[in-house]
Amino acid sequence: MELIRGIHNIRSQHFGCVLTIGNFDGVHLGHAEVLKGLLIDAKANNLPSTVMLFEPQPQEFFAKSNAPARLTRLRDKLLLLSELGIERVICISFNQQFANMHAEQFVSDILIKKLGVKALTVGDDFRFGKQRQGNFDLLVSMGKQASMDVKSTASFRQLNARVSSTLIREALAAGDLSTAKVMLGHNYAISGRVIHGWKRGRELGFRTANIALKRQVCPVNGVFAVQATIAGKQVYGVANIGNKPTFNGTRALLEVHLFDFAQDIYGQFMHVELIKKLRDEKKFETLTQLTAQIATDVAAAKQCFGLN
């Protein structure tokens, strides 16, 4: 899959494509329906299937720390899109200049002149351009003049509700991993590079591999039974996602205690699937209480995987 970073990197050889546009946060089953339409059009027109997405996501740009929790980092999003068969992704830097672009200019200059979009597939609630003035009707109107076919994919429904990133966030926040999995089509996961932590887990007798969640607001919090992929191996474990309140932490962190695993994995990429929520994060008055609770969490996670 080809990745184009920024409008300035769209070249003449990228002219002529079928396109869909959106955040694709989570690349859930609702998104998959949109992408099915894209792939059908790509095959019919013998043109590359292309997805346009944004970094940061628009709500993150406008609302900053008040933006909804992101489900998927860019790296994971690209991997999921590639697995679905998408040939090309255009990642637009969402900055003030782009936010000020009028909807008509976006369609004329980017979609028609730069990309030569032959067919465009968008969700039924798609809005774009300065102050979200662009909508489906505008795309259809301008598309007719440029021989660009515009179609809307009907909202995908499952569990008697529309599949959306918002509903998945709500399920994750409630600890309902099974409902989130049904809507995502896969286990919810967090990925990133293993960093050096405070080494407190080692002192307590439970070494952890840590992933910083950086600026993103995490949609989950608490202690989970997990399955991690690291150094080419799949390993079970127990993870804490939160701010380490017992140590008065302020930085969101994913800490994973891997069962029967002692390799040095600092700097390596780790993929962590959340399988079952065990409890909420809690502040303990003493390290003895914390250590006892961790031992209980380890036992519960091992029981979840049939390891006891």
Topology summary:
Elements: E1 2-5, E2 17-21, H1 29-45, E3 49-55, H2 58-63, H3 74-83, E4 88-93, H4 96-99, H5 103-114, E5 117-123, H6 136-145, E6 149-153, E7 157-158, E8 161-162, H7 165-173, H8 177-184, E9 189-193, H9 200-204, E10 209-212, E11 222-230, E12 233-242, E13 253-258, E14 269-279, H10 287-304
Parallel strand pairs: 1-4, 2-3, 2-5, 3-4, 5-6
Antiparallel strand pairs: 7-8, 9-14, 10-13, 11-12, 11-14, 12-13
Helix pairs in contact: 5-6, 7-8
Structural overview:
The protein is an alpha/beta fold and 308 residues long. The protein has two domains: 161 residues, Rossmann fold; 118 residues, Riboflavin kinase-like (Elongation Factor Tu (Ef-tu), domain 3, Beta Barrel), CATH 2.40.30.30. It is built from ten helices and 14 strands. The strands form three sheets. Strands 1-4-3-2-5-6 form a six-stranded parallel β-sheet. It has a six-stranded antiparallel β-sheet with strand order 9-14-11-12-13-10. Helix 5 crosses helix 6 and helix 7 packs antiparallel against helix 8. It is elongated and about 70 Å long. The mean pLDDT is 89.
What would you say about this model in short?
Catalyzes the phosphorylation of riboflavin to FMN followed by the adenylation of FMN to FAD. The chain has 308 residues and is of the alpha/beta class. It is 32% helix and 27% strand.
